[in-house]
Amino acid sequence: MMAEFWESSFRDKQTMWGFEPADSAIAALNLFRENRLNKILIPGFGYGRNAKIFADAGFKVTGIEISETAIELAQKHYGDDVKVYQGSVSVMPFDQEVYDGIFCYALIHLLSEKERAKLINDCYKQLKPNGYMVFVAISKNDAAYGEGEELSKDRFEMKHGVQLFFYDSDSVEKEFGRYGIIEAKEIDEPAKHKGNRASQKFWFITCKKQEK
Questions:
Q1: Longest C-alpha distance within the chain, in Å?
Q2: pLDDT tens-digit readout, 177-204
Q3: Which residues pair with 205 in a beta bridge?
Q4: What is the rounded radius of gyration, in angstroms, for the C-alpha atoms of the chain?
Q5: Single pTM value for the model
């Protein structure tokens, strides 16, 4: 279901978010640079608009993306230097690598509770000790909260069929609390490619894996 949705979205709308990286991708890049990370994983790679700044900054980037069309778009626009596994994050891991950093943008809130728990755990398992993982997830304070059909607490099916789980501080703590969370803050993410469209409200969640 999810694979078909994203495949048809990328086929129809192609590079639908433009090519400028999200502000939160720039913030994650700065965090990863400050901590001298090198090898990073990006689940929910899309067509690579948020990955390019990491690759350009000298990071070794690996992606995971469910849509074949999105991967083809990434190769067309950015070349094929970046390794991208095609498939759903629900079947991670795709390799036995461990990464210094993981950046997961606007993906986790599309998943069910069980899938979210698995994704966080799978990412944490592939993180090196002292590595950082950053998740960007939609907030209950976003204007879209409450739209569509309510499926369960804070989870709604939107008119285009996408299901969204909206986070607040309690659900952030509940889902990420045991994974070395060091900061969770609400941010405004401008919709840069959409002209005068309102910013979205997201959580920027940073976790650090402690050495055992």
A1: 48
A2: 999 999 999 999 876 555 556 788 999 9
A3: 135, 184
A4: 16
A5: 0.89
What is the SS3 assignment for 85-145? EECCHHHCCCCCCCEEEEEEECCHHHCCHHHHHHHHHHHHHCEEEEEEEEEEEEECCCCCC
Name residues whose C-beta falls within 8 Å of residue 130's C-beta, 6 or more positions apart in sequence: 35, 208, 209, 210, 211
Is the pLDDT at 86 greater than 80, yes or no? yes
Contacts of range 139-145, beta carbons closer than 8 Å, 24 or more positions apart:
139/166, 139/167, 139/168, 139/186, 139/201, 139/202, 139/203, 140/166, 140/167, 140/168, 141/186, 141/201, 142/166, 142/200, 142/201, 142/202, 143/198, 143/200, 143/201, 144/200
